[in-house]
Amino acid sequence: MIIGVPKEIKNNENRVALTPAGVNEMKKHGHQVYVQSTAGEGSGFSDEAFAEAGANILATIEEVYGIAEMIIKVKEPIEFEYDLIREDQLLFTYFHFASYEPLTKAMIESKSVCLAYETVERGRGLPLLVPMSEVAGRMSIQEGAKYLEKPMQGRGILLGGVPGVKPAKVLVLGGGIVGYQSAKMAAGLGADVTIMDISLDRLRYLDDVMAANVTTMMSSEYNIRQEIKEADLVIGAVLIPGAKAPHLVTRDMLKDMKPGAVLVDVAVDQGGCIETCKPTTHADPIFIIDDVVHYCVANMPGAVPYTSTLALTNATLPYALELANKGWKKACQESSELKTGLNVVKGDVVYKAVAEAFDLPYVPVEEYLQDEEMAV
Q1: CATH number at residue 40
Q2: Are 371 and 311 contained in the same domain?
Q3: According to the UniProt entry, what is the EC number of this protein (predicted)?
């Protein structure tokens, strides 16, 4: 198969979807790999390193899209890329369709095959979302602590306090991978942490493994309203696979928060679980509403691209190899994990949560995975 790796062009996105080691693996299986020039620079991988691994280096993004049968990316295509995508071309990347209707409709019109990292499922887990959730969860505390500083327009409070001075209060909404990593980092810095979830079993687990300065609490609107009044830093860490995140922090709750408190919405690329959040960039990461600082960067791991690229490609490469070796249809027929990754196929929405998000027609993915002789 001919595989293309374009340079990411989303604002301050420095990750790359394939490393030289990944190129080497693809070449060992007989595939051709075309990498756009400087695609790996932000993550510390030079064109020379890719070429030594066996990649062909192309000067422009148009050339990469023009030659590739499968495009491997990190972030969803942006508007500039829409017209470069061809009918039947396979795109393997993060899409987060349910949060952005124009992207969904553009991919429908392209009649391409869109397989989303974030909806590939293994059991009840999301193996291609986990590594970036781990990075984003840890970063949420790092960024939250920074924006609590007074020069950053925060409250001017040190997350862990000092002897004789109370630490900051951190509220984490959601006990999944992001929430777990957030609470772990905040606790490690000495903060007073409360983590909420709607699953009592998950709360029992978190209560067993977390440090003594982490309190678990059942998530409900009432409890959130009470806890948010005292919180210095709130982390939105809610995920519904493939679907738009629910608003757990509503506009009217901000008036009850401390001036200079910080909200970090890690769920922003799925629509956000904080009503007042809107996607921001690393170049302009915050805005303030009702004296509350909002940090809503949609590609947080892009700020630490070396770590993020290695963590992501460790997870995606086996699946990318399977797609390249078998083709998307056979690979999805034989792998229930990849099958759940299909979101848009040749003009049809085949992932129910995406169809429901925008009231679009839904076609069961099985219709595309039948053998032709069976479909007759």
Answers
A1: 3.40.50.720
A2: yes
A3: 1.4.1.1
User: 240 pLDDT band (50/70/90 cuts)?
Assistant: confident
Span 23-39, pLDDT tens digits: 999 999 999 999 999 99
Nearest alpha carbon to residue 245 among 219, 275, 223, 220: 275
**Out of 96, 247, 294, 348, which one is annotated catalytic?**
96
Residue 248 in any domain: the answer is yes
Is 371 known to be catalytic? Answer: no
**How far out from the chain centre does Cα 147 lie?**
22
Within 8 A by CB and 6+ apart from 1, the residues are 31, 32, 69, 70, 323, 324, 325, 327
Do residues 94 and 159 share a domain?
Answer: no
Run of H or E residues at 235: strand 233-236
Catalytic residue among 192, 232, 265, 269: 269
Residue 118 lies in a domain: no
Q: What pLDDT, on the 0 to 100 scale, is given for residue 376?
A: 34
* Domain count within the chain: 2
Q: Determine the Cα–Cα distance for residues 149 and 165; give it in Å rounded to an integer.
A: 16
Residue 290 annotated to the active site: no
Q: 166: domain range?
A: 133-303
**Spatial distance between the Cα atoms of 254 and 274, rounded to a whole number of angstroms:** 10
Round to whole Å and give the CA distance between 15 and 200. Answer: 36
Tokens of 308: 């993020």
147 and 58 in a single domain? The answer is no
Q: How far apart are CA 341 and CA 319, in angstroms?
A: 11
